[in-house]
Please model this.
Amino acid sequence: NVQLFRIDVSPETARTLLMQYVDAANSLAARPQWYNSLTTNCTTVVMTMIRAFADEVPLDWRVLANGYLPDYAWERGVLDQTRTVEKLRALGSITAIAQAHGVTPDYSQMIRQGIPAFVSN
Model:
């Protein structure tokens, strides 16, 4: 089950994170690495990227345990605070949409339809 969440970051921060992803992908293409479900997983890799430009991101067990990062992000105020994290998970579930639509030129736009914008308190 894939979920998409909108966060409150500046365009500059979003670009920095995107470039971190590009660099990581290029590095893996040049020099593959083993996936480690505890130390090098989809959550820990993202946290490492964020720490490259964020002031402070405290370590939490939910960073190590796949599937719990949205709860951590919600508690830290990174996700929309006007909805519960459970509601954001439901609204952000894109698996069925992605599978039904398939990979097409408008894929990125299609999977983002209906994903709520970030709203701060």
About this structure: The radius of gyration is 15 Å. Residues 11-112 form one domain. The CA atoms of residues 54 and 118 lie 19 Å apart.
